[in-house]
Amino acid sequence: MIAIDTNVLLRYLLDDDKQQSTKADKLINGQHTVLLTDIVLVEALWTLRGKKYNLDKSQLIAVIQQLFAEPNIRFEDGQTVWGALNDYRLATPVKVGSKRKTADFPDALIINKAAYCTKPPQTLAGVYTFDKAAQQIDGAYEP
User: Fold this and answer.
1) How far apart are CA 111 and CA 134, in angstroms?
2) Which of 3, 18, 24, 111 might form a disulfide with 12, Cβ 3.0–4.6 angstroms?
3) Transmembrane stretches, by residue range (predicted)?
């Protein structure tokens, strides 16, 4: 197994630098299973959502689904990422001040990861956040 950094994942997804994208493709489609850590996934989505690439929610969902379809890619915790993807997909906008905001994928991953990391006999009483949109995800609460 190998692991890749965010820049390798982005070159693979974007195919925007001939030399680096070719190397990224060879790594991801090579002989080794490729570990995709949570932080690499979140950083990549943050970059793709940013001003330069400006992907919307449906496009980000498609990117995550594409990564699940890659035969060599393994997530740090695929079940948690899948749960976060589902929560992100179902998230609806809430009014925050004069704007409407929707929980983003990192919010959903934080909440799902916390639930996953809690092992019996402990139980998770909730994830507390000031983010009103994230509070719409089951298990998230206002402090």
Assistant:
1) 9
2) 24
3) none
> For the chain, what are the domain ranges?
1-76, 90-143
pLDDT at 22: 97
CA 100 to chain centre: 21
Ranges of H-type helices in 70-142: 78-90, 105-117
Q: How long is the chain? A: 143
pLDDT at 23: 97
Q: Quick one: pLDDT at residue 117? A: 82
| Blockwise average pLDDT, block size 10, the chain, 143 residues | 96 96 96 96 96 96 97 95 96 90 93 85 88 91 91
Distance CA 70, CA 80 (A): 17
Distances (CA, A) of 132 to 89, 95, 107, 127, 142: 17, 8, 11, 12, 8
